Amino acid sequence: MSITRLLDCRRVDLDGIRYVILRESMFDLLCEKAGVSKSEAGEAEKNLAPAFDIDRASLAEKLRRHRRAAGLSQAELARRAGVRAETLNRIERGRTEPDFTTIRKLVRAMNDAERVHLDGRIASSGGQVANQS
């Protein structure tokens, strides 16, 4: 049996950064095995808060950039992804951190829109991708 199945975790790659998502009970067990108390783990988590703010800002900027590249308004992306426009607005302003399911919905909707956008550019340029300088 693999260690991933044993730990009941998932590996996720978001913009080239690898993360591991695991159940909190497993995290607690790993802390216990490492000799780290829950209060120490909590303090470490507080010290990481500025890094999460940077990640949130980075995510917001990347989301805005990809949405615009796909030629979508916030309202249109929200509709295609099945999320509330207010939620998308808060994510893009870095006011909230979306869960993995919301990120996946947004990415799929943007990828579909970019594919349609690219197909349109190819068709309008006679089979060649138009140069965007």
Structure description:
The chain is mainly α and 133 residues long. It has helices at 3-7, 24-34, 38-47, 49-69, 74-81, 85-92, 100-124; strands at 9-14, 17-22. It folds into two domains: 1-47, no CATH class; 64-133, 434 Repressor (Amino-terminal Domain) (Orthogonal Bundle). The protein contains seven helices and two strands, in the order αββαααααα. Strands 1-2 form a two-stranded antiparallel sheet. The radius of gyration is 19 Å and the shape is elongated. Residues 129-133 have low confidence and may be disordered.
What is the compact description of this entry?
It is built from 7 helices and 2 strands. It has helices spanning about 5, 25-35, 40-45, 50-70, 75-80, 85-90, 100-125; strands at about 10-15, 15-20. The longest helix is centred in the C-terminal third of the chain and has 25 residues, at about 100-125.
Radius of gyration: 19 Å
CATH architecture call of the largest domain: Orthogonal Bundle
Tell me the β content.
5-15%
Shape: elongated
Number of helices: 7
Order of helices and strands: HEEHHHHHH
User: Main sheet?
Assistant: 2 strands, antiparallel
Number of strands: 2
Fraction of residues in helices? 55-70%
The main sheet orders its strands as 1-2
The overall pLDDT, averaged over residues, is 76
Low-confidence parts, pLDDT < 50 over ≥5 residues? 129-133
* Main structural class: mainly alpha
Structurally, how many domains make up the residues?
A: 2
CATH class of the largest domain: Mainly Alpha
CATH superfamily of the largest domain: lambda repressor-like DNA-binding domains
**In the CATH scheme, what's the topology name of the largest domain?**
434 Repressor (Amino-terminal Domain)
Distance between the termini: 51 Å
